[in-house]
């Protein structure tokens, strides 16, 4: 059996993913201008950075005002998870240029190492997906009853980005991984910090 070059295998896999991405985007191109898709896309903007940042800081502020330690802690938790997810997402976006689907359908498509700050070349990965999943998972840490609704909301916000031609499927998948990992890491750090502070106060 011949040896398989890992680099060649990885490139072949990446090429296959790109072909699937482009095929899916092309197949649902007729849907992006439908009123339902546009309305759902507008609603999904709650998953953009400014609304999520305002939501997380607002939760912390309300918690402080009401002297509610759980809500205050959760606001900080959501903010930390969202901030880390955003930082990771931005780091990747600034190192990879990928044409957004709506541009790829009308113009030339490319995905390559680069540092472009143009919106049209910032498809990979999905920030809406990363941020929303990070926040909803962080919310569920202190409010477990919100987990199912949070997952449904995260999936809906992520999924609509494909038919509205804002992201490819693989952008969504990688964004979800980033959001999940960012929440896991930030929450563990916060919990350990809180536990350490509790021991120093006792």
What does this structure look like?
The mean pLDDT is 93. The longest helix has 33 residues, at 169-201. This protein has helices spanning 6-27, 35-43, 49-65, 69-93, 101-106, 127-142, 147-160, 169-201, and strands spanning 96-98, 111-113. Helix 3 (49-65) packs antiparallel against helix 4 (69-93), helix 4 packs antiparallel against helix 6 (127-142) and helix 6 (127-142) packs antiparallel against helix 7 (147-160). The termini are far apart. It has 8 helices and 2 strands. By secondary structure, the chain is mainly α.
Q: Short summary of the structure?
A:
This protein is an all-alpha fold.
Mean pLDDT value: 93
Sheet-strand content, in percent, reads under 5%
How big is the Rg? Answer: 19 Å
**What general form does the structure show?**
globular
Largest β sheet strand count, sense and barrel closure: 2 strands, antiparallel
Q: List the uncertain runs.
A: none
What structural class results from the helix and strand content? mainly alpha
Distance between the termini: 64 Å
Strand order of the largest sheet: 1-2
Number of strands: 2
Assembly state here? single chain
Helix content: over 70%
């Amino acid at each position: 059996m011949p040896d398989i070059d890992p680099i060649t295998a990885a490139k072949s896999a990446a090429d296959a993913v790109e072909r699937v991405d482009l095929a899916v985007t092309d197949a649902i191109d007729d849907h992006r201008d439908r009123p339902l898709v546009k309305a759902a896309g507008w609603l999904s903007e709650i998953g953009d950075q400014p609304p999520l940042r305002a939501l997380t800081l607002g939760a912390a502020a309300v918690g402080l005002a009401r002297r509610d330690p759980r809500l205050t802690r959760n606001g900080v938790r959501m903010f930390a998870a969202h901030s880390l997810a955003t930082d990771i997402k931005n780091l990747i976006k600034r190192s990879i240029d990928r044409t957004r689907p709506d541009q790829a359908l009308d113009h030339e498509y490319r995905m390559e190492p680069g540092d472009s700050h143009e919106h049209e070349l910032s498809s990979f990965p999905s920030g809406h997906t990363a941020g929303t999943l990070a926040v909803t998972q962080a919310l569920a840490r202190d409010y477990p009853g919100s987990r199912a609704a949070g997952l449904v909301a995260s999936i809906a916000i992520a999924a609509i980005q494909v038919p509205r031609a804002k992201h490819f499927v693989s952008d969504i998948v990688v964004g979800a991984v980033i959001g999940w990992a960012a929440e896991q890491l930030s929450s563990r750090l916060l919990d350990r910090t809180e536990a350490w502070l509790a021991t120093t106060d006792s």
